[in-house]
TrEMBL record:
GO molecular function (one): phosphotransferase activity, alcohol group as acceptor
Name under which the protein is recorded: Phosphotransferase
Top-level taxon: Bacteria
Pfam families: APH_6_hur
A GO biological process held by the record: secondary metabolic process
Length: 308
């Protein structure tokens, strides 16, 4: 089988190499072969590579045999994305991109084509937050009765263990009060969650960059890392969106708290639970970024966590 000729986006190469500590090199080498197999499997014609594309996925713009435009996504294999196809199947285009075909064993999905050049990031923040919450509400549905989605409680326990290990990083020496608060809050949230029994299908990685304009709906979500749990956990990642803009605004601390309170009230979730999950997820992301050498994002995450 002849591999298609295309250039792997620089961002994809960079993030896979940095985030996988060299383990992703074999996958990058195999990408042309994986693409050729998928193009042949579903009788697709390659148009072009989507640039810059995903951080850990190759996205090819293609046409199906009947001329319909579509997007072929080949993702780096990782546990968080293993159930993307199952979530998209369950949503069936309601609030999210529609799944056309899938080969989950290869991390390959054929998706309806959205307007990748018009994410919610293209809108002013206030309008984007309003649209984002409206689209996210559509995704919060009951999971299938028999499902394999990871529960928030199980996933967070793994994150807590990793955060506790990264607490000893030399660069985290001055962050111990913030890290300890994140660990304490997450433990309390998990303990209390057992009495709430809010088990909804969550996106898991919901932010303005993961919501694109579409023809059949104004906005549709992409790239879920699905979990089952409470809405406040899902909403937390939206609270810390556009950190660069927030950090540069007048009175960023007050602006961060206003954003958190507004989203909590609009989504009818408890403010304290949303703050707790936001703090935990942001601190965890900050120390993970420190661990992989991404000091720029680590600084933004940790500054925001201190604000709230």
């Amino acid at each position: 089988m002849t591999a298609p000729g295309f250039r792997i986006p620089a961002r994809l190469q960079d993030t896979v190499r940095r985030w996988t500590d060299g383990a992703g090199e074999a996958w990058l080498t195999a990408l042309p072969r994986l693409a050729a197999e998928s193009l042949a499997r579903w009788d697709l014609v390659l148009e072009r590579v989507c640039e810059p594309g995903g951080q850990i996925s190759l996205v090819l713009l293609v046409r199906r045999a009947d001329g319909t435009p579509a997007a072929l996504k080949i993702g780096y294999p990782h546990p968080e994305g293993a159930q993307e196809h199952a979530a998209l199947t369950h949503w069936d285009g309601h609030g999210a991109v529609r799944l056309l075909e899938s080969a989950p064993e290869d991390g390959t999905l054929l998706l309806e084509r959205l307007n990748s050049e018009v994410p919610l990031l293209s809108l002013p923040e206030g309008k984007a937050m309003l649209e984002a919450l409206g689209a996210l509400r559509l995704l919060w549905v009951a999971p299938p009765e028999q499902h394999d989605f990871t529960l928030v409680a199980d996933y967070v326990q793994g994150l807590r263990e990793a955060l506790a290990r990264r607490r000893d990083l030399p660069a985290a020496a001055e962050l111990l009060p913030l890290v300890d608060e994140a660990l304490e809050l997450s433990a309390a949230l998990l303990a209390d969650a057992t009495t709430r029994d809010e088990r909804l299908l969550l996106h898991g990685d919901y932010h303005h960059g993961n919501v694109l304009a579409a023809e059949r709906s104004p906005w549709l979500a992409i790239d879920p890392k699905p979990l089952v749990g409470e809405r406040a956990y899902d909403l937390a990642w939206l609270v810390q969106d556009r950190l660069e803009t927030l950090a540069g605004s007048p009175g960023p601390e007050a602006a961060a708290r206003r954003r958190l309170h507004r989203l909590a009230d609009d989504a009818a979730v408890d403010r304290d639970r949303l703050r707790g999950w936001t703090l935990f997820r942001t601190v965890e992301a900050g120390l993970w970024s420190l661990d992989v050498g991404d000091t720029q994002h680590a600084s933004l995450y940790l500054e925001f966590a201190a604000m709230i």
